[in-house]
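Researcher: Structure prediction, please.
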Amino acid sequence: MLRRWDPAWAEEAAAAVVESLAELKPFLPWAKDGYAVEDTHAFIRVSVDKWDAGEEFNYAIPTVPVEAAPSEQRSSGRSG
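Model: Predicted structure follows.
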Protein backbone atom coordinates (compact mmCIF):
# COMPACT_ATOMS: atom_id res chain seq x y z
CA MET A 1 0.00 0.00 0.00
CA LEU A 2 1.18 3.51 -0.75
CA ARG A 3 1.41 6.04 2.07
CA ARG A 4 1.99 9.75 2.33
CA TRP A 5 5.59 10.50 3.35
CA ASP A 6 6.21 10.79 7.10
CA PRO A 7 9.17 12.84 8.41
CA ALA A 8 9.91 9.99 10.84
CA TRP A 9 11.16 7.93 7.89
CA ALA A 10 13.88 10.38 6.81
CA GLU A 11 16.88 8.69 8.42
CA GLU A 12 16.02 5.22 7.16
CA ALA A 13 15.21 6.52 3.67
CA ALA A 14 18.51 8.43 3.50
CA ALA A 15 20.42 5.32 4.57
CA ALA A 16 18.73 3.32 1.80
CA VAL A 17 19.66 5.97 -0.78
CA VAL A 18 23.29 6.08 0.34
CA GLU A 19 23.49 2.27 0.30
CA SER A 20 22.10 2.20 -3.26
CA LEU A 21 23.88 5.23 -4.77
CA ALA A 22 25.79 3.17 -7.34
CA GLU A 23 22.53 1.80 -8.73
CA LEU A 24 20.56 5.06 -8.46
CA LYS A 25 23.05 7.62 -9.84
CA PRO A 26 22.75 6.60 -13.51
CA PHE A 27 18.99 7.15 -13.47
CA LEU A 28 18.11 9.74 -10.83
CA PRO A 29 19.66 13.22 -10.91
CA TRP A 30 19.11 13.79 -7.17
CA ALA A 31 21.13 10.66 -6.27
CA LYS A 32 24.62 12.08 -5.91
CA ASP A 33 27.76 11.61 -3.86
CA GLY A 34 27.35 13.36 -0.55
CA TYR A 35 23.63 12.58 -0.30
CA ALA A 36 22.63 12.99 3.36
CA VAL A 37 19.67 12.79 5.68
CA GLU A 38 19.21 16.56 5.25
CA ASP A 39 18.40 15.91 1.57
CA THR A 40 15.69 13.45 2.60
CA HIS A 41 14.29 15.87 5.18
CA ALA A 42 14.12 18.56 2.48
CA PHE A 43 12.36 16.19 0.06
CA ILE A 44 9.79 15.22 2.68
CA ARG A 45 9.16 18.87 3.66
CA VAL A 46 8.56 19.83 0.02
CA SER A 47 6.46 16.71 -0.51
CA VAL A 48 4.22 17.54 2.47
CA ASP A 49 3.89 21.20 1.45
CA LYS A 50 3.02 20.38 -2.16
CA TRP A 51 0.58 17.69 -1.07
CA ASP A 52 -1.18 20.18 1.21
CA ALA A 53 -1.31 22.68 -1.68
CA GLY A 54 -2.75 20.02 -4.02
CA GLU A 55 0.22 20.37 -6.40
CA GLU A 56 2.03 17.01 -6.09
CA PHE A 57 1.30 13.69 -4.46
CA ASN A 58 4.48 11.78 -3.62
CA TYR A 59 4.04 8.41 -1.99
CA ALA A 60 6.22 6.13 0.08
CA ILE A 61 6.02 2.34 -0.08
CA PRO A 62 6.06 1.11 3.55
CA THR A 63 7.77 -2.16 4.47
CA VAL A 64 5.47 -2.97 7.40
CA PRO A 65 1.70 -3.44 7.38
CA VAL A 66 -0.24 -0.23 6.87
CA GLU A 67 -2.25 -1.04 9.99
CA ALA A 68 0.84 -0.05 11.98
CA ALA A 69 1.04 3.50 13.24
CA PRO A 70 2.92 5.83 10.85
CA SER A 71 5.77 6.12 13.36
CA GLU A 72 6.25 2.33 13.16
CA GLN A 73 6.20 2.17 9.36
CA ARG A 74 9.33 2.23 7.26
CA SER A 75 9.66 3.26 3.64
CA SER A 76 11.25 1.07 1.01
CA GLY A 77 10.70 3.36 -1.95
CA ARG A 78 8.85 6.29 -3.38
CA SER A 79 6.51 7.20 -6.17
CA GLY A 80 5.14 10.48 -7.31
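Model: Residues 3-79 form one domain.
Researcher: Thanks, that helps.
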